[in-house]
Amino acid sequence: MDNIFIFFLVAITSSFAYYATNRHKSVTMLAAIRSFFEWTGTFSLFFVANLALGTLIVFFIRTFTPTFIALYALQNMLLLFLSAAQAFVFHHVWKRGSNE
Amino acid sequence: MSTWERITRGLGIFTVALFLLVMLTPLSNLAGQSFAVAPERKAADAIVVLAAALLNGGSLSDESMRRTITGIELYKQGFAPVLVFSGRGRRDKPVPTEAGQRLLMAEAVGMPAEAILKEETANTTREEAGRISRLLMHRGLRKILLVTDSLHLRRAKLAFESTGLEVFPVPSDNFPTAATSAWDRLWLASRIVEESAALSYYRLAGYF
Fold first, then answer.
1. Nearest-CA distance from B16 to chain A in Å?
2. Best interface-test mutation with B: which of A42, A59, A65, A69 has the largest number of B CBs within 10 A?
3. Is residue B161 included in any domain, yes or no?
4. Chain B: nearest CA to A20, how far in angstroms?
5. pLDDT at B185 over 90
6. Residue B167's CB: how many other CB atoms inside 10 A?
7. This model's pTM is above 0.90
8. ipTM of the complex, rounded to two decimals
């Protein structure tokens, strides 16, 4: 029930946004949704790459130095947000690059 | 449309579908239930409460508190005469330790200090298993009730058994059934992935 309420809220605000900007639409909704999925895919790649690199660095430090770093250090919301930001920027750059 | 766009779009659709499946269906609950270890509350020589985390300022984290309370409960119900608290200090502030804070809490609810042992140096589950096992075997104690969170219990049980102790697992929570909101289910799924990876690593490294 809680989830249905959240979907309902998003549907309402999306409908308002769609009708408010309808006359300016230079980008179709379908193209925007495609772009959203591309960004999500890029985000997944960056997130997995960041996690993998982080794991390697933690094991390297544990093996070759007396310092102990827990793998839980990677359990940080910041990694999620920064991976999303990375994906947004690079998706934009790559998209522009392929259009030129 | 370039191949790269096709790949990222496909991956994006898969990611969104996976997120929705995890958050809106009981998939992670079912996976959690099969991953968790069934509790075995039996008479033992000692109760071992594994470390969770200490917050900045020295308070026990929620998880640490849950495990501590479960350990005290087991002691008060007469399952074992000895209680072992594990947990070091924070990296930025080594004192107080988590085990020390747990000891204070146990004393505050009327537990005798002489029934409590502390392990304050281990960094990992494997180190906890090795050090606590030595501590107990030195006193001739071989059967333990092992208290930790339900998803950590599988790996912890195997690590302690590999040191020669007989282990009866006791989870400090019921996360797999308690997680019903989208956020909780997402967190549960991430913990299952984390613990599965750690379990595979322990097996590959030959820790058990």
1. 8
2. A42
3. yes
4. 27
5. yes
6. 23
7. no
8. 0.84
